UniProtKB/TrEMBL annotation:
Positions of region (Disordered): 164-212
InterPro entries registered for this protein in UniProt: Exostosin, Exostosin_GT47
Any one Gene Ontology molecular-function term assigned to this protein's record: glycosyltransferase activity
Residue ranges occupied by any Exostosin GT47 domain in the UniProt entry: 340-621
GO cellular component: Golgi membrane
Organism of derivation: Carpinus fangiana
Keywords: Glycosyltransferase, Golgi apparatus, Membrane, Signal-anchor, Transferase, Transmembrane, Transmembrane helix
PANTHER family to which the protein is assigned, alphabetical: EXOSTOSIN FAMILY PROTEIN (PTHR11062:SF210), EXOSTOSIN HEPARAN SULFATE GLYCOSYLTRANSFERASE -RELATED (PTHR11062)
Main location: Golgi
Lineage per the UniProt record: Eukaryota, Viridiplantae, Streptophyta, Embryophyta, Tracheophyta
Protein name: Exostosin GT47 domain-containing protein
Subcellular localization, as worded in the UniProt entry: Golgi apparatus membrane
TM regions (residue ranges): 20-39
Chain intervals with Polar residues compositional bias: 177-187
């Protein structure tokens, strides 16, 4: 009995101890929650790299609930009534589509395609709808390859060929999706639930600390007149009118959707804007170099080249180069000459078709395919011995990666990234070159919107030539290269329809036609469609060959071609305008224009802030005739740098892309 009584006493003491421990845990948790509310931002700032979890807006409390969490996967709208106030977690994920939007929790709207207008769709993808995923996590459950569709080389390529050989609608290489994930309250949201978000405020000193840039000769004063003049025109306008237009524009995206749905970030204006002026400051301010873990003879050669470029002899009246196009034509010419004389590239043979070594030469993603074809077939730069190489090319197609591995409607792209991760680990184990520099002397060329996500983390130190050059989505000015998005209609004749009318025969002030992708284009049409005969601003043109030719003739006959963003910051219209000798007017905040490190975009284009859409005509009319003629001449002189040729020509698009990769690498490296 005594033993039993003693045992019961021990049990009671043990229970009291456990109750006490549970109470302590509960009190600690409550104290933490009480501290989290007023000091949330301070606590979150302790996370590494300033990364913070994405939280719901307005009245929605972002509580991580496994049972009720909601992930919004694309440019879509979600009814507020469908979301409970105590279980909202919103993250934007890029998924493929053909321009449909989910309405009322799953209903589909009609299809869109800019290809109907006679040019490539700005949207990029496969799926025929946007995707809504409720509950769970994309990374949970099955291993990365469980849902992979195994396609052989011929079947994957056949899909692409069927698209390319069909109607005008399919000429884009598949109706595609253009999407922009814009910062909200200074926060840049990743396109996948895996991706943490980074704090990026335009006033933050740490927002671009990882940017690596070559030395920069600032653009000439003459070429910056346009931007200054535009700012003066806007500032000198009637203050009351500007306030009225500004207030209207601020609420335009809300008025476009009167159904009471919650708009996603891709359909809302960015709150953190990086202008062309700010990008120039970033490029001029940051000159950081990466020291290889183990230097080589090739690294020493690159360092020697850097000194020659910095002290390049002054170029005067070069017959092949139009000096006003460049930030510093002397440095560009010297760098290009040294590239031709010095640069050696090793192209990895590893990797299976169709993802590797199988370029797509037609459609919206043709840039990555043409570069792959011309690089792999090049005898001047490519070497068979990797020990002789200064740079290493990873020849994969982001478009074919999507075709081959993405499971339609699976809501999961992790297997695409895992595939490239496995590949990079394979070449790191097989060759010593990746590990020597951490991949900093490796480069890739990709035009699909998913490429930034697919190559994030495991290829983060590589030089990335990307069409999706968005500074809020991880694009590093001075290291990465903004790749021109070129829409090729005929693989055998990429120069079809090249050229346009002379300035005296361009009687249309401004032209735009296209689908209402993203938040910006509806605002553009709201202010200018059918409002002014000089502003030929249209929505989608009807499909057909006649409409296609009408679109081309409009570009050939217009002084200015409006290039507004869609879902992504990049658009093929920029290159189309150059193709048809029309001065491009880029309306896309945070977009880094192609070859930004060497070209002076103020010499041949206008870059207008999204907020200035209500003043667009005033801005265009404020440009003096002499200045317009300079811009148009700059476009004509620039044209040769944006053309693909079956056999590469000096200073063409192939060489310009390779040069920017080379140029950025030269100014990244240091040995001491």
């Amino acid at each position: 009995m005594r033993r039993s009584s003693g045992f019961d006493k021990l049990c009671r003491m043990e229970k009291r101890r456990w109750v006490f421990m549970v109470g302590v845990v509960a009190v600690t948790y409550l104290l933490f929650q009480s501290l989290l509310l007023p000091y949330e931002n301070a606590l979150l700032s302790l996370l590494p790299d300033g990364e913070i979890p994405v939280r719901a807006e307005s009245s929605f409390l972002a509580v991580h609930s496994a049972a009720k969490s909601v992930m919004v996967r694309n440019p879509l709208t979600v009814n507020a009534s469908e979301l409970s106030n105590d279980s909202m977690v919103v993250e934007v994920v890029r998924t493929e589509g053909v321009g449909r939007a989910i309405e009322n929790g799953g209903g589909l709207k009609g299809e869109d395609s800019d290809a109907e207008n006679g040019f490539a769709s700005d949207e990029k993808g496969l799926d025929n709808d946007f995707e809504l995923f409720v509950g769970g996590n994309l990374n949970s459950g099955s291993p990365p390859y469980e849902n992979v569709v195994h396609m052989n080389d011929s079947s994957a390529l056949e899909i692409v060929k069927n698209e390319e050989n069909s109607s005008v609608l399919d000429e884009s290489g598949g109706v595609s999706l253009e999407q922009t994930v814009k910062p909200n309250n200074g926060v840049s949201v990743g396109k996948n639930p895996e991706e943490n978000t980074s704090l990026k405020s335009e006033n933050s000193k740490d927002a671009d600390t990882t940017i690596i840039s070559p030395p920069l000769a600032l653009p000439r004063t003459a070429s910056s007149i346009t931007i200054t003049h535009i700012e003066n025109v806007v500032s000198n306008a009637s203050s009351s009118a500007l306030q009225r237009e500004g207030a209207t524009l601020k609420n335009d995206y809300v008025l476009m959707n009167s159904t009471g749905k919650k708009e996603m970030r891709c359909n809302m204006p960015p709150k953190s804007i990086t202008s062309l002026y700010e990008m120039n400051r970033i490029l001029a301010r940051h000159r950081r170099s990466m020291r290889p873990r183990r230097s080589s003879v090739r690294d020493q050669e690159i360092v020697a080249v850097k000194s020659h470029i910095e002290h390049a002899p002054v170029v005067i009246n070069d017959p092949e180069l139009y000096a006003p196009l460049f930030r510093n034509v002397s440095m560009f010419k010297k760098s290009y000459e040294l590239m031709e004389r010095t640069l050696k590239v090793y192209v990895y043979r590893d990797g299976s078709k169709p993802i590797f070594h199988q370029p797509i030469l037609k459609g919206l993603y043709a840039s990555e395919g043409w570069f792959m074809k011309l690089m792999e077939g090049n005898r001047r730069f490519v070497v068979k011995d990797p020990r002789k190489a200064h740079l290493f090319y990873i020849p994969f197609s982001s478009r074919m990666l999507e075709y081959t591995l993405y499971v339609r409607n699976s809501h999961n792209r992790t297997n695409l990234r895992q595939y490239l991760k496995d590949y990079s680990e394979k070449i790191a184990a097989k060759y010593p070159y990746w590990n020597r520099t951490g991949g900093a002397d490796h480069f890739l060329v990709a035009c699909h919107d998913w490429a930034p996500y697919e190559t994030r983390h495991h290829m983060e130190h590589c030089i990335k030539a990307l069409c999706n050059a968005d500074v809020t989505a991880g694009f590093k000015i001075g290291r990465d290269v903004s790749l021109p998005e070129t829409y090729v209609r005929a693989a055998r004749n990429p120069l079809r329809d090249l050229g346009g009318k002379p300035p005296s025969q361009r009687h249309i002030l401004a032209f735009y036609a296209g689908n209402m992708h993203g938040y910006l284009r509806p605002i553009l049409l709201k202010h200018w469609k059918d409002k002014d005969p000089d502003m030929r601003i249209f929505g989608p043109m009807p499909p057909g060959v006649a409409s296609k030719m009408n679109y081309i003739q409009h570009m050939k006959s217009s002084k200015y071609c409006i290039c507004p963003k869609g879902y992504e910051v990049n658009s093929p219209r920029v290159v189309e305008a150059i193709f048809y000798e029309c001065v491009p007017v880029i309306i896309s905040d945070n977009f880094v224009p192609p070859f930004f490190e060497v070209l002076d975009w103020g010499a041949f284009s206008l870059i207008v802030a999204e907020k200035d859409i209500p003043n667009l005509k005033d801005i265009l009319l404020s440009i003096p005739k002499e200045k317009y003629l300079e811009l148009q001449l700059g476009v004509r002189k620039l044209q040769k740098h944006f053309l693909w040729h079956a056999k590469p020509l000096k200073y063409d698009l192939f060489h310009m892309t390779l040069h920017s990769i080379w140029y950025n690498r030269v100014f990244q490296i240091k040995l001491r």
